[in-house]
Structure formats: structure tokens, C-alpha cells
Amino acid sequence: MSTTILGIVGSPRKNSNTEILVKEALGGARNIPGVSVETKLLLLRKKNIQLCKGCNDICYFGDKPCPIKDDMGKILDELLRVDGYILGTPTYFGGMSGLMRTFMDRTVSIFGKLKYKVAGIISVGGGEFDGQELAAQSIRVFCLNHSMIQNCWHVSATAAKPGEVIRQVAKLAEARKLGQNIVRLVEKIKK
Ligand SMILES: Cc1cc2nc3c(=O)[nH]c(=O)nc-3n(C[C@H](O)[C@H](O)[C@H](O)COP(=O)(O)O)c2cc1C
């Protein structure tokens, strides 16, 4: 059975640096000799994802589905189906984007069901040392909360204008390596 990796992009803009790096990581994931890998891309900006209403007495304590009717239902099914994720966010005021945060909060309704999924993290900021680490670390805490397995390092890039990161050859290679590491971790867990 092939390994499936889902790339999740938390940038609201087109030609996003985060999207470029997540796609690169997925390309790396597909490029491991002898390993069958399927990749999928989820652009959060194209989805209708409403804010978590905090009624976790229904979903978390009550074990009932989230009552909000938007695109998140299908996304949650996909999160459960795949083996691993590449989670990419732009850095906004020293943290992840609101889009990414909104998506992450809504996973509370499947809390406990993402255990041992494998995650790789990517963050992009416009300034040098201007919060990319914090953005990545907050995603790391999200993964820890869900008891996911993580790659020990993340990809953190500095690129301000749309698409700028495409010229950073070393960063693209780092992203591809991240994608490959995620597949290798999944393969280990499956054994
Ligand atoms: C609301 C907002 C807040 C931002 N805050 C930061 C920041 O704290 N640190 C930083 O390095 N860049 C910051 N930036 C710049 C973006 O991180 C940068 O443009 C990055 O390339 C966005 O990634 P994307 O191309 O994937 O959307 C901010 C941009 C916006 C729109």
C-alpha cells in the first residue's frame, strides 16, 4: 500500500512562498526510489473554514461531530485517511497565519485520532529572524498535542515578496529533504 502525504498551505495569497516550499517537499516525498508515495495538496485559502466556536463539550467531551457545516468536514476525513502531513505557514506577527490557526483549532473535533501521524513543518517570514521560529514552534506544539510524530528539524525561510523563495535553491533542497524524511518516518511506523 502506498504512503499518502498531504501538504497543507496556510497562506491566503497566490504565488505564496509557503506553497512553493510545501510543493517542493511533496516533490521530494514522491522521489524516493522503490517507495510508492501519493501526495495531495490542500490550499486552505480555497476552502470555507469557519472559526471554532469552542463548543468542545459537543465534539471533544460529547464525541459528536462538529456542528459547523463548512469544508472542514471533508478536510477532517482527509486528515484521518492520509499517513503524514507537510504543514506550511507564513509568519504573521511572529506566529502562524490566522488561516492556519483556524484550521488547526477545528481539528479539536477529532482530537485523539491523529496519534502517530507524521508531520513536517515549514514556516516563511519576510524578515530575517522575525518570528519564523515561533511560527514553526507553535505548529510543533499543535502536533505534540495530537501525539503526532515529527521530523526533528523544520524548514524556515526568509522571503518577503510573492514567489521569491523559488530562487533559494538550497532552501528548496531542504524542503525536498523534509518531504523524504516524512515518508521514511511513515515507512518505519508502518513496519
Ligand atoms: C499580516 C502580516 C504579518 C506579517 N508578519 C510578519 C512577521 O511577524 N515576521 C516576518 O518575518 N514576516 C511577516 N510578514 C511577511 C510574510 O511572512 C511574508 O510576506 C511571507 O513571504 C508570506 O508567505 P507567503 O508568501 O507564503 O504568503 C507578515 C505579513 C503579513 C501580511
Determine the strand fraction and express it as a percent band.
15-25%
Q: Which class do the helix and strand fractions yield? A: alpha/beta
Kindly report the CATH topology: Rossmann fold
Which CATH first-tier class would you pick? Alpha Beta
Shape: globular
> What ligand species are in this complex?
flavin mononucleotide
**Can you identify the CATH superfamily?**
Flavodoxin domain
Unreliable stretches? none
Compute the gyration radius: what is it? 16 Å
- List how many beta strands DSSP finds: 6
Q: What is the share of helical residues?
A: 25-40%
| SSE order | EHEHHEHEHEEH
Alpha plus pi helix count: 6
CATH architecture, by name, is 3-Layer(aba) Sandwich
Q: Number of domains in the coordinates?
A: 1
Overall pLDDT:
97
Biggest beta sheet summary = 6 strands, parallel
N-C termini distance: 12 Å
What's this entry about, in short?
With 191 residues, this protein is α/β, with parallel strands linked by helices.
Please give a structural write-up:
This protein has 191 residues and is α/β, with parallel strands linked by helices. It has one domain (3-190): Rossmann fold. The protein is built from 6 helices and 6 strands, in the order βαβααβαβαββα. Strands 1, 2, 3, 4, 5 and 6 form a 6-stranded parallel sheet that branches. Helix 1 (17-30) packs across helix 6. The structure holds flavin mononucleotide.
